[in-house]
Amino acid sequence: MNIQPLLEKSARDHSHLCPRQILGVRLGLAGIRSLGFDVPPEKKQLLLITETDGCFADGLSAATNCTIGHRTLRVEDYGKVAAVFVDVKTGYAIRVAPVIDIRQRACHFAPNESRHYFAQMQAYQTMPDNEMFTVQQVALSTPIEAIVSRPGVRVGCDVCGEEIMNEREIHQNGLTLCCACAGKSYYHMPVSITVFEKTSA
């Protein structure tokens, strides 16, 4: 398969091309094929969960057409170059990751390039999938129905009043809470906040 258009798409969106983007494109294509598709499926049948963001995620998106905006791409930031591909219709899921020694293997596929970065740039475009990736069936910890949720469902948090979409509310002690008010936030407020009210002159 000619991957150049996908690399150009990724480079255009990212403003440059690097080995990790190429790896994302190749891994994205390998994941699609491992689910039994020749091309990215339509109508949100594919859910992609990437285990890191940045260049790699841009390559994945270019190859799979999955995006955060379409709710077909999710980031679980483990700091790993790996991704889980889920067939939303069947719930079948696989995890694709580079082989542990992929950088060393890349040097063997680009023997005339002594610079590791450029050896990876070359090799990642031509290496066979079985020299690059491991593919393993996995089971999601959260059911696919709960991850995808139902469109148009909205509730208000009983504490902060903010709107919660996509069935992400938490029911606790008879209250409907957002993750932050339920104590599962990725941020916290300063211990003491002083609120200054405007006074009319």
How does the SSE layout of this entry go?
Layout lengths: L3 H11 L4 H16 L11 E5 L4 H10 L8 E3 L7 E5 L5 E6 L3 H8 L6 H11 L2 H4 E6 L5 H5 L5 E3 L6 E3 L4 E3 L2 E3 L24
Parallel strand pairs: 1-2
Antiparallel strand pairs: 1-3, 3-4, 4-5, 6-7, 8-9
Helix pairs in contact: 1-3, 2-3, 2-5, 4-5
Task: Describe the structure concisely.
This protein has 201 residues and is an alpha+beta fold. The protein has helices spanning 4-14, 19-34, 55-64, 102-109, 116-126, 129-132, 144-148, and strands at residues 46-50, 73-75, 83-87, 93-98, 133-138, 154-156, 163-165, 170-172, 175-177. It folds into two domains: 4-147, 60s Ribosomal Protein L30, Chain: A (2-Layer Sandwich), CATH 3.30.1330; 149-201, no CATH class.
CATH class of the largest domain, please? Alpha Beta
Helix-strand topology string: HHEHEEEHHHEHEEEE
- Describe the biggest sheet? 5 strands, mixed
Helical segment tally? 7
Cα separation of the termini: 72 Å
Derived structural class: alpha+beta
CATH topology heading of the largest domain:
60s Ribosomal Protein L30, Chain: A
Number of strands: 9
Low-confidence stretches: none
Q: Provide the spatial order of strands within the biggest beta sheet.
A: 2-1-3-4-5
Helix content: 25-40%
Provide the CATH architecture of the largest domain. Answer: 2-Layer Sandwich
